């Protein structure tokens, strides 16, 4: 497991001093806690030799009990951006948490709906699911989630059973958070490297 506290910053990446792994980009995906269901956050690191030879590693995952937990955890993590979709019924509550806690850092949070999804969650999740399947096939694997057992468990339970709508994906916070993060890597073309 990667020790996030020991990652060393260079002018273009974060390096794990224990393994020498160089993460060129890092992003989190998260789902807000809602209606008594915990939220979820995952951090993914991207390594690459060339633009066409990229791998993605699950580095960290955690459940989120409150909206403030999301802000607190994101402030502790090294990712460049953290992607989510804020449901309309939560927008006022999220803004209230920000207002009541002026020290919360929100600058690295991005609404994936505005940045990438173009308002079509069904198409977004279909595209990411297809890309995920392609990148986890034997012989072509480039997504590694060994350090994220909650996410792997949720994927095994839900993805194998299949789903018919984006609402079903969103009902599994671990899968939605993973797909938000991977969607940023796969679809956001103007994302800068570290540095």
Question: What would you say this structure looks like, in words?
Answer:
- The protein has one domain: Nucleotidyltransferase, domain 5.
- It has 7 helices and 9 strands; from the N terminus they run ββββββαβαβααβααα.
- It has helices spanning 67-76, 88-100, 112-117, 121-135, 149-158, 166-170, 173-187, and strands at 8-9, 14-15, 22-23, 25-31, 39-50, 53-64, 81-84, 109-111, 143-144.
- The chain is 38% helix and 24% strand.
- By secondary structure, it is an alpha/beta fold.
Descriptors for this entry?
195 residues, alpha/beta, Nucleotidyltransferase, domain 5, 6-stranded mixed beta sheet, 3-stranded antiparallel beta sheet, 7 helices, 38% helix, globular
Brief overview, please?
This protein is an alpha/beta fold and 195 residues long. The chain contains seven helices and nine strands.
Task: Note the topology.
Blueprint: E1 8-9, E2 14-15, E3 22-23, E4 25-31, E5 39-50, E6 53-64, H1 67-76, E7 81-84, H2 88-100, E8 109-111, H3 112-117, H4 121-135, E9 143-144, H5 149-158, H6 166-170, H7 173-187
Parallel strand pairs: 4-7, 6-9, 7-8
Antiparallel strand pairs: 1-2, 2-3, 4-5, 5-6
- CATH names the topology as Nucleotidyltransferase, domain 5
How is the main sheet built? 6 strands, mixed
* Main sheet strand line-up: 8-7-4-5-6-9
CATH architecture: 2-Layer Sandwich
Number of strands: 9
Number of helices, counting only DSSP H or I runs of 4 residues or more: 7
In percent, how helical is the residue content?
A: 25-40%
Residues in β-strands, percent: 15-25%
Overall number of structural domains: 1
Tell me the distance between the termini: 24 Å
Which consecutive residue ranges, at least 5 long each, have pLDDT under 50?
none
- Secondary-structure element pattern, one letter each: EEEEEEHEHEHHEHHH
CATH class: Alpha Beta
Secondary-structure-based class equals alpha/beta
* Average residue-wise pLDDT: 81
CA-atom Rg in angstroms: 16 Å
Overall shape: globular
